[in-house]
Amino acid sequence: MSAGGTTTRNRVRRDWPRGTQWADLGLLVVLLALALSGLGSSFTGWGFALVGTLGVLLGVASTLVVRAYRLPLVAAVVLVVAIFFLLGGPLTLRSTGDTAFVPGPGTLGELADQALFGWKDMLTTLPPVDGDGPLLVLPWALGLAGGLLGAWAQFVRTSRSWVTALLPVLVAAAVLLVVILVGVQHPASLLLQGAGFAAVALGWLALRERRESASVRGGRRTPVRAAAGVAVLAVAASAAIPVANAVLGDDAERVVLRDHVTPPFDIGRYPSPLASFRNYVDLKGRKEPLNVHDRELFRVTGAAPGTRIRLAALDAWDGLVYGATNDPLADEGGDGFQRVSSVIDNPMDGDRVEVRVTVGEGYSGVWLPTVGGLQSMRFERGDADGKKETFRYNLATSTAVVPGGVHPGDVYSFEAVLPDDEVTPDSTPSSLVRGLGENTGFLDRVRDKWTEDATTPMARVFAVAKRLRTEGRYSDGVRKAERSYFPGHGLKRLSDGFVNADPMVGNDEQYAAAMALLANKLGVPARVVLGAVLEEDGVVEGRDVQAWVELRVADGSWRTLPTEEFMSDRPPSEQQPQTREPMSGTVVPPPAPVPPPSDLGEAAASDLRARMQQEEKEEKEDEEKSTGLPAWVGFVARYVGLPLLLLGALLGSVIGAKAWRRRRRRSSPATSARFVGAWRELVDHARDLGQPVPLGPTVTRREQSGAIDSDRAPALARRADGFVFGPRVPLEDEAADFWAVVDEERRTMSQGVGRRARILAAISPVTFLPGAGRRRRRG
């Protein structure tokens, strides 16, 4: 206290960055922002860049605050985790509603789920994904982690200047690597992600190494040298891309994880809608609950009359049914039915239309009516968020699926492109055809017989279509005299019951399936499409549903072979053939072990949901039987056990690192160094217990002993000085005895505190942090 009665207070100076350290932090933010820019081809808009860069800034700020108060790295990690959950909702989950702005259980659970498994959703969703959807958690988490680790690495000092300079650059490079792995084949910008990142990284690395290297600190910095360095970096960065292309080739592909991940969606679990075609036919007064011939299926606005509304494109025949698959032709790319966002990357030439569909009382099921090639999709009414989350689209077949099903009253809208759809006998077909297998041999005779006069593959296809139309007869098998014409398009129905029958009778189901198989037999890729042609009023009823065939031409596009080209409209003769073998077994079931339900009508939807629930129940029961444990045990192990295991591994690594350090100190080659190591072990133990022991090159062991809460510490400090600076080389037995005394004193110090303090001391990483607790020099 002074004479005036005032008290002098010593302010604790915070360890904030100074001078060039702020410049380093700025370059770190720039480098991480360039790395995150690689997600530009994965997201719509630039919201991901704002969220990711904000994460970088907050991660850096967390590190600076923790360093200023001289806290360990684990404190920065805790602070970043708190920021992730508190701000993650309003920044990344805005599309889920107003609840995202409140860190409630739902918001926190969604953030945790996206942090752990969001990368799977990213890899199984067709890019670009929604720029305001929950997948924004990925750039948010990457930004926070990159800013935290990069800023902390910037202040780490090692004995080698180049290692010190390299550490923060390695963190930014690791973020860039993650961005590339979860990204797409084509980078958002080679200039930014390649040349820009390389130029900034190399320039920053050179500047840091020059500052850290003691041999060049006396060097003079001139504008000429700086300009020359910038010029060299610019030339190197601009030459990197052409040199890489020359070495790797223009067709070199990036290694991205989505190319090695199979989307977890099996379209084969849903029955083929073509097998339920009899639900659309006129029953001539008879009533069946699944029949929707006279009912409104959906109402379409925005598309011109004559537009083809497609329900499903069926691209594979297995001898039983024509069904949709996840296996496009080799050059069509894609991974079958993929998750997509509201904007779909589907390049296509043609007329652009904006369409709105209202589902009517007669339609329900998983197949979503669309037109052309989708460019975007918005669900407006009827569990819009749920449908948006589960919606799947197949780029190769232009088929959309909502696994939870659409129901009467649902409303959705989309943008689509209507491509050129004209095909003629002069069109050149694609040369790539899907293999048909051995069960199509029944088509060989009619193929050769019906195409004798045609010379080109496409001309032969049209010749087959003409023979089907002129020699065939049309019947839905409804009238009493025609009930012997059974439904189905399996092997027996198409062979003995259609192309080899006399007369050849069927409806859209048989004609389209036979036409597509024959076209493939002729070397022209073909598939069956179930849909409808839009009328003037925009209303589609069950009577409007038909099946047609699409053929693939040389440019890779699919063109429609209209139903009227290959299907007869003449009814069969009322006089039945004398002998007709019953078509038992030709009513083809879907791949599932239950009869194929209709994809239209309320009963069909309920049947589908019941079957899916039963399958899920059976899978859960099988899992419990195989493991002998209830399902909740697996849930707990996944969401609780895994994080605890990771935490245990982290804490165990700290304990293991201390044991390894202790062993290295105890077995040092120089005997005098063993005394130094034993004393450092005592000092580190005191620091782990929370005692403020000073460090630094100017601090002596005797000064340190005064800060250690141990009666024997001063004597041990003098004894260590005596052996280290004494006139003779100490013996190994003396070093072993000194270590034994230090170990005993460490145990005594631990016994003097509570159990909680001992546990925290064991897992504390404070003694591994360079400079923590170091005495500040006065100057």
Describe the 3D structure.
The strands form 5 sheets. The chain has a 5-stranded mixed sheet. Strands 9-12-7-2-16 form a 5-stranded antiparallel sheet. The N terminus and C terminus are likely disordered. It is an alpha+beta fold. The protein is built from 21 helices and 18 strands. Helix 1 packs antiparallel against helix 5, helix 2 packs antiparallel against helix 3 and helix 3 runs antiparallel to helix 5. The chain folds into 3 domains: 233 residues, no CATH class; 330 residues, no CATH class; 128 residues, no CATH class. A hairpin with a 4-residue loop joins strand 10 and strand 11.
| Spatial extent as radius of gyration | 37 Å
What general outline do the C-alpha atoms trace?
Answer: elongated
Mean pLDDT: 81
The oligomeric state is single chain
User: How many β strands by DSSP?
Assistant: 18
Tally of domains: 3
β-sheet strand percentage = 5-15%
- Which segments are poorly predicted (pLDDT under 50) over 5 or more consecutive residues? 1-12, 214-222, 246-252, 578-606, 771-779
Q: Quickly count the helices.
A: 21
Distance between the termini: 25 Å
